[in-house]
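Problem statement: downstream parser choked on a complex file, so we are re-checking the raw output for the magnesium ion run. The parser issue turned out to be on our end (a line-ending mismatch), but while we're here, posting the original submission so the record is complete.
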Amino acid sequence: MANLLEVSNISLHYGAIKALDNVSISVEENEVVTVLGANGAGKTSLLRAISGLGKLSGGTIYYKGKKLSDNLPYTLAGMGIAHVPEGRHVFATLTVRENLLLGMYGVKRYRPGSSLKSKEDRVYELFPILKERKNQLAGTLSGGEQQMLALGRALVSSPSLLLLDEPSLGLAPIIVQEIFDLIRKIHIEERVAILLVEQNARKALKAASKGYILELGKIVMEGEAKKLAEDERVRHAYLGGRAGAC
Ligand SMILES: Nc1ncnc2c1ncn2[C@@H]1O[C@H](COP(=O)(O)OP(=O)(O)O)[C@@H](O)[C@H]1O
Ligand SMILES: [Mg+2]
């Protein structure tokens, strides 16, 4: 079976800074893949490159067999790619419901049959707290609730591929666990492939079937998530301990 997403040898520069250097990754249909890396490793740049928000200086990206490099970001939602950016970026002065409506923007054109109402109800089913808060301004939500809203806004476009940029960043440990549980639920119930970039290696490797390690813009290791979690070098650099520590 062809991969859903095939990123081949991409490079991306910011002026003289090389943020991605010959990076290749792949995601299969309905698979959860994680890319781990420290702050500044290039994780956000990778997701932005896939979303068409960053200009490649080399390499190609294929999604469902189609070359993506020339696509404009706003067309991607219609193609089934939804990006949940680092820091959530919900619209603080709009209500929860209005934020969800914006997630549909650009999608109806491509999928005339899709019903917003059922999508919205599905989001409230997944995140009941958002239903309680649907007429509240997004800026008044807690960090965890804003992350749920950002996930919900991505889901109303019925994506085949969800790009998640550090969903656990800045959240209290108990909320982090809740968000990872929700990611798992979304993957299973919505049958969506997920590309999850994270600094929280322990939780991300538990959620994923395959993982990559990104260091200074380069993939330095890749493999089955379970194997990476047991690897001595990964444990030392990303899991803060020896085998048996988690
Ligand atoms: N807009 C930008 N202009 C210049 N350099 C940037 C910009 N965004 C990111 N960088 C640099 O690119 C590298 C990768 O950054 P980023 O992709 O944000 O990493 P991560 O998400 O893993 O923290 C870093 O060295 C960062 O400083
Ligand atoms: Mg980042």
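For whoever reads this later: The mean pLDDT is 90.
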